[in-house]
Amino acid sequence: MAPILQIKDLQIDVKMDEEVLNVVKNINLEIGKREIYGIVGESGSGKSLTSLAIMGLLASPPLQVSKGEIFFEEDKDLLKLSSRELRKIRGNKISMIFQEPMSALDPLFTIEDQLMESLKFHTKLSKKEMKRACVKIIEKVGIPRPEQIMKEYPHQLSGGMRQRIMIAIAMLCNPKLLIADEPTTALDVTIQAQILDLMKELRDDFETSILMITHDLGVIAETCQRVAVMYAGEIVEETDVVSLFHRPKHPYTKGLLKSMVGDRSDALYSIPGKVPSVEQMPKGCRFVTRCPEAMDICEKVSPDDLEVADNHRCKCWLYQKEMANHV
Amino acid sequence: MFAYILRRLLMLIPVLFGISVFIFLIMKMIPGDVVSTILGTEATDEARSQLEKQFGLNLPIYQQYLQWMGGVLTGDFGVSLRTGKPILGDIISRFGLTLELTLLSAFISWIIAIPLGIVAALKRNTSTDFGVRIISLLGVSVPNFALATLLLLVLSLAFSYYPPAGYVSLFEEPMKNLQMMVLPAFVLGTAMAGAVMRMTRSSILEVLRQDFIRTIRAKGASERIVIFNHALKNAMIPILTIIGMQIGTLLGGTVIIEQIFSLPGLGQMVLTAINQRDYPVVQGAVLFIATVFVLINLFVDVLYSYLDPRITYK
């Protein structure tokens, strides 16, 4: 089946004073119809930047897409569209929800205003029809008494409610792709589960593909079919969710899995060190400074993105057969 | 909300009481008195005491205060010791001019400051932004009297233009009145604009950094909608605060500008009255100005809650 979104060789740079530094590199991924695709990684791994690049919402300058293609519905390269054409897609065929429901809604407008706004941008419905659509979508995201909620302001709602409203706004125009950037990070655990269930339900009802961006492997396990693990601006491993949890290849992925809270009683593992800053990016493999299995070659040359098993890509020298040739 | 406004109005009472006592005492403490300004230093003691008796200045000071206050509370601000004319009527007619000047200045200030502030924010750290910041710095730092005198000089010497003399009110001859007002309003307006411009710039920048702006863009909004429907409205509260204070201050009269353009406004009235030690006029005018200032502040506070639903008063 044709993918709904296909990212090819995406590269994002940041322009600092006179210098151009790379923040995201070699991003390749495909999201199928009705698929929930996860991107997991620490803060600073470039997962949010990747999602903003899809939306055309990178803060530019200083950020810019310097290379690559993002195909939406096969033919359209989002990076080549005019800002006007992109606006027609944004909030309509591709919509996005964000991490902080507390600050993601305009505090000076009612929920109704903020829902209606989307419809005004993308539809030619009458006011009455718009209102009906808003009531329907609010019910759909599981909020009782929609008429009353619509008259309220964001500060009168709880965090969970606001995130539901954000989802309602995102789903209003029946998008083909929903990008969820850490949708549950700011919520407490019970609300998290509800929101994730809601998203899965909406995926089934609206046939929407979801790009789930998170640092939480639990969220990935619960929702996604395919996962990309990002580290320091690169995808280091990409596979289906079962293989990722049971047969991880990349040392970083293994580290991440080890640092999950499990039922073991011993101290929680954590990967030593932190993500290198853009100025101090290693020349070879970007994970070399923290990798327990680092070799000489890792410091010098960046490994290729290889198919190490069926539908399983990994970017690590451990799996590179030609290793001998390089040395 | 209604209860809140009522409470704020009630709070006016202690404020005005404090101000009235303060201004009364200050007027008593400054050297010189109305009797010697009228009669001169050569006057006989007899003439002096007669005039003092006539003005009630021979009474103990607390009685003088009570007498004056009693009058004010019944709506009688007394008469000017120099002209014998009722004070309240005089204040109100001069306030008309001051109000017109203030509103005109504020209008000029906004149409300069808010668009320029937005442009500077959107083009921050470019030459446009730099230019706007220089203009705003000039607006804030060039003294009113200098700009006013320069304007008059340039207009008269280079363009042989003289604003009409002899004040007429807006209702008598609107065109002539506006011709007289436009220059002083421009001078005051540019001074106000400097501060408003800076506040607009920084406030818009602050709002544009917030998460909800990204949400609105993600909905597919054009930049025009992002800026005018959302960013400007959110940026309005600090701008309003500055504007409210500026208007409150201007409504108290602008002595220098009124002098330069010979406009009979409140400021001129108070200044003359102080020089002549015309106690009841000064006291009455100050009370009036204080009331207006407090009311403007109240109005701005009410406006806040209208703009921002998170601000409620109970």
From TrEMBL, chain A:
The keyword Amino-acid biosynthesis belongs to this UniProt entry's keyword annotation: no
Domain ABC transporter: residue ranges: 5-257
Any GO BP: peptide transport
Domain of life, source organism: Bacteria
Compartmental location: Cell membrane
UniProt KW keywords: ATP-binding, Cell membrane, Membrane, Nucleotide-binding, Transport
UniProt keyword annotation of Lipid biosynthesis present: no
Alphabetized GO MF terms: ATP binding; ATP hydrolysis activity
Major localisation: membrane
UniProt xrefs under PROSITE patterns: ABC_TRANSPORTER_1 (PS00211), ABC_TRANSPORTER_2 (PS50893)
Membrane topology: Peripheral membrane protein
Cited InterPro entries: AAA+_ATPase, ABC_Ni/Peptide_Import, ABC_transporter-like_ATP-bd, ABC_transporter-like_CS, Oligopep_ABC_C, P-loop_NTPase
A GO cellular-component term linked to this record: plasma membrane
Family assignment from sequence similarity: Belongs to the ABC transporter superfamily.
NCBIfam families on file: oligo_HPY (TIGR01727)
The name this protein goes by in its record: Peptide/nickel transport system ATP-binding protein
Lineage: Bacteria, Bacillati, Bacillota, Bacilli, Bacillales
Automatic annotation (TrEMBL), chain B:
Gene3D superfamilies given in the database record: MetI-like
Transmembrane segments: 9-30, 103-122, 134-161, 181-200, 239-261, 281-307
This protein's GO CC annotations: plasma membrane
PROSITE patterns reported in the protein's UniProt record: ABC_TM1
GO BP of this protein: transmembrane transport
Keyword S-adenosyl-L-methionine (UniProt): no
Any single Pfam family the record assigns to this protein: BPD_transp_1
Signal peptide: none
Keywords from the named record: Cell membrane, Membrane, Transmembrane, Transmembrane helix, Transport
Repressor keyword on record: no
Predominant subcellular localization, coarse grouping: membrane
Domain ABC transmembrane type-1: 95-304
Domain of life: Bacteria
Membrane topology: Multi-pass membrane protein
Subcellular location: Cell membrane
CDD domains tied to this protein: TM_PBP2 (cd06261)
Family: Belongs to the binding-protein-dependent transport system permease family.
Protein name according to UniProt: Peptide/nickel transport system permease protein
Organism this protein belongs to: Thalassobacillus cyri
Classification of source organism: Bacteria, Bacillati, Bacillota, Bacilli, Bacillales
